[in-house]
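Design a sequence for this backbone.
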């Protein structure tokens, strides 16, 4: 099938630039305690801006937290956990990042707090406390059981019984992460103030955690059973989570009004450039997912679409997802692609090492904003973690191991005498930033080439997308076009050499091969793709 979409012509930074996700505990330990911190991020800003060429960093939570959920259990929304530095460190990070031309996006976790948050401590203290209704407290059913059948990702009930005040509270994640009650106007006002706090400091936008969860069914109805329960192999959720259809515990349409308000707040800070709202929107029916852009595109700039993480690494499956995505998008809504994050197995582990280079070309040449998870630019795989080293009860540690900077002890993540909070892989002496920078054909240098090419290419930044039908099963090709520039991307995901014929195209020139060893004229009628090779071809005419 051939499809075409119009270019927007817009050069808004969040449409064209690459967004790089930093998991602060794992990026670089700047003060020698074995845990990554904001000092470490500041240290490596030149790498991100000058070496890699990305546009914006997104920092996963660095707020005060008991760290039961890697910092997504927050006990103070407007401060920095001492593990990472303090507010002054964050201010320096902002200043330095901006000086390097980087935007800074931070995580905003509206759905829940830590049970150590003073709001929850107050709320749980007595039924009569003015903050009682800031969280979701319900009476038991007449037989004493939980208010309904909802289960959270670990497979347990979302309801936790509090003997002292004789009610259950709701937690969509761990017991230690009670959900806020967004239907209470005081909660809403307090949480909007949190956004203003960070915007006033100078942040450029937010990645909003589990945006689909903040409003639940006001009648608290039971979720129906799932007639076809099937665990998602790419997610770390407990199989029990899938035994029910999650129709009442999430995605209540009332949440859109909240995101419209948040967008208005962000827009009020947008002067020369946009302040941006990205959302960790779960994969769901297209109709439901598309609503996160807002009916007049007045909600999320970039609702993440995670389908690529969950798509088998096959040319047909990937093409069909991209085409469906392109077809569903309303005019003006901007696509985005994600290949990895701190919750899912890394691409090299999920799809195999041979997928890494093709994935880089795919991510950086599709129409839409690419988000890159730290370490993916090295082709880092998941790192095995022993039960003694385990930190995360959901088993996400292997995806969160330290960034590999050089061949020194602990891969340069922390000083030799410190012990990294999670292990580095045994082969770190060969796979690290320094080694890959000096190896001309490395994965890192492929990323650098692709990012640099993308930055300079109107066709890749804002051009149209058109997929090209191919008879070879393992191959996927598409055209990106903008005024005066036509770029062909041809990917061979198979383990065999393939010769593809793109008969309606004129001759061209290979600008980038995923192996970084080919720059030559080609005949599109007989385009040779080596196994697992991708080509970026500039077409004449
Ligand atoms: C999604 C985050 O990405 C994940 O790491 C976290 O555990 C949950 N939301 C809860 O905040
Ligand atoms: Ca540290």
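Sequence:
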């Amino acid at each position: 099938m051939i499809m075409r979409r119009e270019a927007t012509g817009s050069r808004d930074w969040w449409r064209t630039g690459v967004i790089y996700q930093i998991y602060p505990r794992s990026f670089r330990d700047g003060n020698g305690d074995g845990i990554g911190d904001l000092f470490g991020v500041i240290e490596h800003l030149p790498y991100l801006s000058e070496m890699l060429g990305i546009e914006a960093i997104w920092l996963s939570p660095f707020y005060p937290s008991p760290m039961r959920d890697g910092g997504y259990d927050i006990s103070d929304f407007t401060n920095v956990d001492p593990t990472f530095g303090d507010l002054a460190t964050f201010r320096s990070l902002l200043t330095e990042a901006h000086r390097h031309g980087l935007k800074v996006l931070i995580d905003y976790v509206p759905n829940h707090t830590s049970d150590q948050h003073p709001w929850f401590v107050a709320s749980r203290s007595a039924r009569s406390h003015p903050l009682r209704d800031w969280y979701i407290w319900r009476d038991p059913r007449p037989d004493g059981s939980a208010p309904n059948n909802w289960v959270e990702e670990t497979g347990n009930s979302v309801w936790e019984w509090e003997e002292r005040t004789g009610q259950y509270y709701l937690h969509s994640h761990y017991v230690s992460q009670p959900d806020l009650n967004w239907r209470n106007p005081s909660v809403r006002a307090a949480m909007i103030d949190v956004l203003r706090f960070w915007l006033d400091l100078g942040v450029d936008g937010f990645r909003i955690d589990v945006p689909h969860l903040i409003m639940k069914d006001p009648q608290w109805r039971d979720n129906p059973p799932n007639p076809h329960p099937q665990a998602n192999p790419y997610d770390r959720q407990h199989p029990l989570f899938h035994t029910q259809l999650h129709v009442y515990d999430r995605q209540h349409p009332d949440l859109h009004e909240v995101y419209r308000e948040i967008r208005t707040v962000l827009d009020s800070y947008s002067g020369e450039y946009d302040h941006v709202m990205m959302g960790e929107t779960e994969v769901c029916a297209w109709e439901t997912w598309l609503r996160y852009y807002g009916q007049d595109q007045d909600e999320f700039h970039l609702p993440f679409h995670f389908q690529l993480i969950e798509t088998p690494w096959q040319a047909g499956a990937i093409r069909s997802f991209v085409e469906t995505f392109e077809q569903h998008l309303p005019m003006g809504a901007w696509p985005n692609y994600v290949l990895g994050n701190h919750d899912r197995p890394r691409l090299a582990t999920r799809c195999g090492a041979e997928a890494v280079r093709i994935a880089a070309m795919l991510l950086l040449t599709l129409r839409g904003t690419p988000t890159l998870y730290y370490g993916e630019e090295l082709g880092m795989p998941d790192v095995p973690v022993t039960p003694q080293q385990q930190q995360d009860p959901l088993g996400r540690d292997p995806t969160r191991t330290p960034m590999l900077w050089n061949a020194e002890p602990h891969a340069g993540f922390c000083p030799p005498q410190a012990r990294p909070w999670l292990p580095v892989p045994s082969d770190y002496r060969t796979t690290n930033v320094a080694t890959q920078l000096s190896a001309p054909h490395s994965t890192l240098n492929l990323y650098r080439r692709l990012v640099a090419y993308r930055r300079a290419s109107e066709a890749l930044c804002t051009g149209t997308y058109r997929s090209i039908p191919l008879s070879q099963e393992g191959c996927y090709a598409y055209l990106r076009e903008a005024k005066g520039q036509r770029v062909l991307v041809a990917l061979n995901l198979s383990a065999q050499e393939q010769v593809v014929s793109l008969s309606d195209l004129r001759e061209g020139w290979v600008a980038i091969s995923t192996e970084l060893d080919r720059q030559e004229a080609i005949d599109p009628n007989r385009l040779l793709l080596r196994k697992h090779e991708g080509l970026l071809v500039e077409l004449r005419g």
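The longest strand covers residues 475-482.
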